[in-house]
Amino acid sequence: MKNVWILNHYAQEPGGAGGTRHYSLARHLLSHGWCASVIAASVELNTGRQRLSAGERKRIDHFGGIPFMWVRTPQYKGNGGGRMLNMLTYALRVLIPGVTRELNRPSVVVGSSVHPFTAVAGLILAKRFRVPFVFEVRDLWPQTLVDLGRLREESIITSVLRSIEKWLYQHADSIVVLLPQAAKYIVPLGIPEQKIVWIPNGVELDGYPEPAQPSTLDTFTLMYFGAHGQANGLNNVLKAMAELKKRPGMRHVRLRVIGDGPLKAELIQLARELNLDSVEFEEPVPKQQIPFLAAEADAFVFNLIDSPVFKFGISSNKLFDYLAGGRPILFSCESSNNPIEEAKAGITVPPENPEALAEAITTLVKMTPIQRAAMGHAGRDYVEKNHGFDALGARFATLLNELVSERR
């Protein structure tokens, strides 16, 4: 059995709320002769929960045979200096030899963004053990921060992050990207295209039963679950619900917003200001409960702000959960790929246009149950063919085997 270390600052265990990409990949790598150890920070991303007890510097937990090592990092709130300290602490502590001593020696090391310091630590570890290094790019830093207005293009911080980013691309033995058009961003930096491998996000299909018929209650339930952050632009969805209230025959439409994030309090306040008694905010749920939650929806809402960063595509965890749930999807986003249009699994509208989204909701509600069911089944068929983690795990294993073979 060969060993791969996967460094992901924000990795989530299967019992938590949020994406579990690396648990799922690790689970399927086992059947291909690879044992993956996931090395993550002890503080959970959205909740700030500290996983370690007082006095613990690290701990290894096992989930379905997959070791997760939690490395102690300080708790923080918001996106300021506390979060930056948390990032740097994680990157520095995983480099202390005693921290990873209990793990089996790696044959390959994977450093996964979002922030680059995790990948820097991964590259240093790979050089220490003289094994191949894989740079997994889940977000294009610092380009994402520039496009979201959090960093200025001409700032010193942006310049430093771009230098780190290019250094990582140059020294990686392979670059795994989640965004389908990420190569258009990376290759112009002087990086050979053959180093880049696309392995998107996906879904554990064995957790999803065949889509059941939605309830026949008088209420039509729209559902959003996932992060409540700047890029999600959920104020657009709330304004669409306010527009919907003005339309005859639409008062039975409800929206359930499930999850957490830095803008949740602001969104709850906006819902109050708009008198949205048709909107309910709920706490996040563990990943294993998502299939049962999805079955309670009549349709899903996927929403992102209008930003140039999406010209390289999207690979959102929740989008594949929506598709697996077998319900039609309202897709409010401008990206270079559109899985909903490809699958014929819903209705696409421009981003940041509440009136257009309200009109799409109205159209969906007025469809027959058979028409909506056809969209849902089309989405389920699409995700089964393209985004099952069993197939994605096999692709990842092929890459790891090639790297080990080349190094030998």
Account of the protein in words:
The chain is of the alpha/beta class. The chain has helices spanning 21-29, 81-93, 116-129, 143-147, 156-171, 183-186, 234-245, 264-273, 290-294, 317-324, 339-343, 354-366, 369-386, 389-407; strands at residues 2-8, 34-41, 58-63, 66-71, 108-112, 133-137, 174-177, 196-198, 220-225, 253-258, 279-282, 299-303, 329-332, 346-349. It has 2 domains: 2-202 and 388-407, Rossmann fold (3-Layer(aba) Sandwich), CATH 3.40.50.2000; 206-386, 3-Layer(aba) Sandwich (Rossmann fold). The strands form 2 sheets. It has an 8-stranded mixed sheet with strand order 3-4-2-1-5-6-7-8, sandwiched between helices. It has a 6-stranded parallel sheet with strand order 11-10-9-12-13-14, sandwiched between helices. Strand 7 (174-177), helix 6 and strand 8 (196-198) form a beta-alpha-beta unit. The two termini are 16 Å apart. The mean pLDDT is 94.
CATH architecture of the largest domain: 3-Layer(aba) Sandwich
Q: How would the global form be characterised?
A: globular
Assign the CATH class of the largest domain: Alpha Beta
Strand order of the largest sheet: 3-4-2-1-5-6-7-8
Uncertain spans: none
GO molecular function: glycosyltransferase activity
InterPro entries: Glyco_trans_4-like_N
Protein name: Glycosyl transferase
Domain Glycosyltransferase subfamily 4-like N-terminal: 18-202
